[in-house]
Amino acid sequence: MPSKNTICLWYDGDAEEAARFYAATFPDSSVGRILRAPGDYPAGQAGDVLLVEFTLMGIPCIGMNGGPGVPHGMAFSFQVSTADQAETDRLWNALIDHGGAPSACGWCQDRWGLSWQITPRALMDALADPDPAVAKRCFEAMMTMGKIDIAAIGAARRD
Protein backbone atom coordinates (compact mmCIF):
# COMPACT_ATOMS: atom_id res chain seq x y z
CA MET A 1 0.00 0.00 0.00
CA PRO A 2 1.46 3.39 -0.93
CA SER A 3 2.21 5.83 1.85
CA LYS A 4 -0.48 8.41 2.56
CA ASN A 5 2.22 11.03 3.06
CA THR A 6 4.92 11.40 0.43
CA ILE A 7 7.38 14.26 0.17
CA CYS A 8 7.33 15.85 -3.28
CA LEU A 9 10.50 17.67 -4.28
CA TRP A 10 10.57 19.98 -7.32
CA TYR A 11 13.46 19.79 -9.78
CA ASP A 12 14.33 21.52 -13.02
CA GLY A 13 14.74 18.46 -15.23
CA ASP A 14 17.14 16.44 -13.10
CA ALA A 15 14.91 14.62 -10.59
CA GLU A 16 16.21 11.23 -11.71
CA GLU A 17 19.85 12.29 -11.25
CA ALA A 18 19.06 13.62 -7.77
CA ALA A 19 17.18 10.46 -6.77
CA ARG A 20 20.03 8.24 -7.96
CA PHE A 21 22.57 10.36 -6.06
CA TYR A 22 20.51 10.15 -2.84
CA ALA A 23 20.06 6.38 -3.26
CA ALA A 24 23.82 5.90 -3.69
CA THR A 25 24.69 8.18 -0.76
CA PHE A 26 22.21 7.54 2.05
CA PRO A 27 21.36 4.24 3.74
CA ASP A 28 17.87 2.78 3.31
CA SER A 29 17.43 4.69 0.04
CA SER A 30 16.43 3.49 -3.41
CA VAL A 31 14.97 4.58 -6.74
CA GLY A 32 11.57 3.19 -7.69
CA ARG A 33 9.34 3.90 -10.66
CA ILE A 34 10.25 6.50 -13.24
CA LEU A 35 7.17 7.99 -14.87
CA ARG A 36 7.40 9.72 -18.22
CA ALA A 37 5.11 12.52 -19.35
CA PRO A 38 2.30 11.17 -21.52
CA GLY A 39 2.08 14.53 -23.30
CA ASP A 40 3.82 17.87 -23.61
CA TYR A 41 3.74 20.14 -20.56
CA PRO A 42 5.14 23.60 -19.75
CA ALA A 43 8.53 22.27 -18.56
CA GLY A 44 8.96 19.42 -21.04
CA GLN A 45 7.76 17.17 -23.78
CA ALA A 46 6.01 13.85 -24.07
CA GLY A 47 8.40 11.08 -23.04
CA ASP A 48 10.52 13.24 -20.70
CA VAL A 49 10.97 12.02 -17.14
CA LEU A 50 8.16 13.70 -15.21
CA LEU A 51 8.15 11.92 -11.83
CA VAL A 52 10.66 9.74 -10.00
CA GLU A 53 9.49 7.70 -7.04
CA PHE A 54 12.28 7.12 -4.54
CA THR A 55 12.89 6.33 -0.92
CA LEU A 56 15.29 8.53 1.03
CA MET A 57 16.40 7.05 4.35
CA GLY A 58 13.10 5.18 4.55
CA ILE A 59 10.99 8.22 3.64
CA PRO A 60 8.85 7.95 0.50
CA CYS A 61 9.55 10.81 -1.92
CA ILE A 62 8.67 11.90 -5.41
CA GLY A 63 10.99 14.00 -7.53
CA MET A 64 9.00 16.09 -9.97
CA ASN A 65 10.57 17.74 -12.99
CA GLY A 66 8.42 20.84 -12.76
CA GLY A 67 10.79 23.23 -14.49
CA PRO A 68 12.64 26.38 -13.45
CA GLY A 69 11.45 29.06 -11.08
CA VAL A 70 10.62 27.08 -7.94
CA PRO A 71 13.83 26.83 -5.91
CA HIS A 72 14.25 24.82 -2.73
CA GLY A 73 14.63 26.89 0.44
CA MET A 74 16.03 26.44 3.93
CA ALA A 75 12.52 26.30 5.43
CA PHE A 76 12.52 22.61 4.46
CA SER A 77 15.48 20.36 5.17
CA PHE A 78 16.37 16.76 5.81
CA GLN A 79 18.00 16.28 9.19
CA VAL A 80 20.28 13.25 9.15
CA SER A 81 21.28 11.83 12.52
CA THR A 82 24.82 10.45 12.37
CA ALA A 83 26.48 7.98 14.72
CA ASP A 84 30.08 9.23 14.59
CA GLN A 85 32.53 11.59 12.90
CA ALA A 86 33.23 9.16 10.05
CA GLU A 87 29.55 9.04 9.07
CA THR A 88 29.22 12.81 9.54
CA ASP A 89 32.23 13.42 7.30
CA ARG A 90 31.10 10.93 4.64
CA LEU A 91 27.62 12.41 4.24
CA TRP A 92 28.70 16.05 4.52
CA ASN A 93 31.52 15.56 2.03
CA ALA A 94 29.29 13.65 -0.41
CA LEU A 95 26.82 16.54 -0.49
CA ILE A 96 29.48 19.26 -0.74
CA ASP A 97 31.76 17.42 -3.17
CA HIS A 98 28.85 16.75 -5.55
CA GLY A 99 28.29 20.46 -6.20
CA GLY A 100 26.73 21.43 -2.89
CA ALA A 101 27.59 24.27 -0.54
CA PRO A 102 28.46 24.34 3.17
CA SER A 103 26.60 26.47 5.63
CA ALA A 104 26.70 26.87 9.41
CA CYS A 105 25.90 24.61 12.37
CA GLY A 106 25.82 21.35 10.41
CA TRP A 107 23.70 22.70 7.56
CA CYS A 108 24.58 22.41 3.89
CA GLN A 109 22.85 22.39 0.53
CA ASP A 110 23.11 19.83 -2.22
CA ARG A 111 23.69 20.78 -5.85
CA TRP A 112 19.92 21.06 -6.39
CA GLY A 113 19.50 23.57 -3.56
CA LEU A 114 17.91 21.14 -1.10
CA SER A 115 18.95 21.83 2.50
CA TRP A 116 20.43 19.17 4.77
CA GLN A 117 21.37 19.11 8.44
CA ILE A 118 24.07 16.54 9.09
CA THR A 119 23.63 16.21 12.84
CA PRO A 120 25.68 13.87 15.04
CA ARG A 121 23.72 12.30 17.89
CA ALA A 122 26.55 13.45 20.17
CA LEU A 123 25.60 17.06 19.39
CA MET A 124 21.94 16.51 20.22
CA ASP A 125 22.93 14.78 23.47
CA ALA A 126 25.23 17.68 24.36
CA LEU A 127 22.54 20.29 23.66
CA ALA A 128 20.17 18.32 25.89
CA ASP A 129 22.66 18.10 28.78
CA PRO A 130 20.81 18.63 32.07
CA ASP A 131 23.44 21.16 33.14
CA PRO A 132 22.50 24.45 31.41
CA ALA A 133 26.11 25.65 31.47
CA VAL A 134 27.27 22.54 29.62
CA ALA A 135 24.47 22.82 27.06
CA LYS A 136 25.36 26.49 26.52
CA ARG A 137 29.07 25.74 25.97
CA CYS A 138 28.19 23.05 23.46
CA PHE A 139 25.75 25.38 21.70
CA GLU A 140 28.36 28.12 21.51
CA ALA A 141 30.90 25.65 20.09
CA MET A 142 28.37 24.50 17.47
CA MET A 143 27.70 28.10 16.45
CA THR A 144 31.33 28.42 15.26
CA MET A 145 31.18 25.33 13.03
CA GLY A 146 30.19 24.47 9.49
CA LYS A 147 30.44 20.68 9.57
CA ILE A 148 30.01 19.49 13.16
CA ASP A 149 33.22 18.41 14.90
CA ILE A 150 32.24 15.80 17.48
CA ALA A 151 35.58 16.01 19.30
CA ALA A 152 35.19 19.77 19.74
CA ILE A 153 31.64 19.30 21.04
CA GLY A 154 32.98 16.68 23.48
CA ALA A 155 35.68 19.08 24.64
CA ALA A 156 33.10 21.83 25.23
CA ARG A 157 31.01 19.35 27.18
CA ARG A 158 33.94 18.47 29.46
CA ASP A 159 35.20 22.06 30.04
Question: How does this model look, in words?
Answer:
The chain is 32% helix and 28% strand. The protein has 159 residues and is of the alpha/beta class.
How would the blueprint of this fold be written?
Blueprint: E1 7-11, H1 15-25, E2 30-36, E3 49-56, E4 59-65, E5 77-82, H2 85-97, E6 101-102, E7 107-109, E8 115-120, H3 121-127, H4 132-142, H5 150-158
Parallel strand pairs: 1-4, 5-8
Antiparallel strand pairs: 2-3, 3-4, 6-7, 7-8
Helix pairs in contact: 4-5
Count the DSSP helices. Answer: 5
Give the CA-based shape: elongated
Provide the residue-averaged pLDDT. 96
Report the structural category. Answer: alpha/beta
Helix content: 25-40%
Strand order of the largest sheet: 1-4-3-2
Secondary structure: number of strands: 8
Q: What order do the helices and strands follow?
A: EHEEEEHEEEHHH
Span from first to last CA?
51 Å
Biggest beta-sheet profile: 4 strands, mixed
Q: Report the radius of gyration as a whole number of Å.
A: 18 Å
In the predicted model, the low-confidence regions spanning at least 5 consecutive residues are none
Q: Which percent range describes the beta-strand content? A: 25-35%
Give a nutshell description of this structure.
The protein has helices spanning 15-25, 85-97, 121-127, 132-142, 150-158; strands spanning 7-11, 30-36, 49-56, 59-65, 77-82, 101-102, 107-109, 115-120. The protein is an alpha/beta fold. Strand 7 (107-109) and strand 8 (115-120) form a beta hairpin.
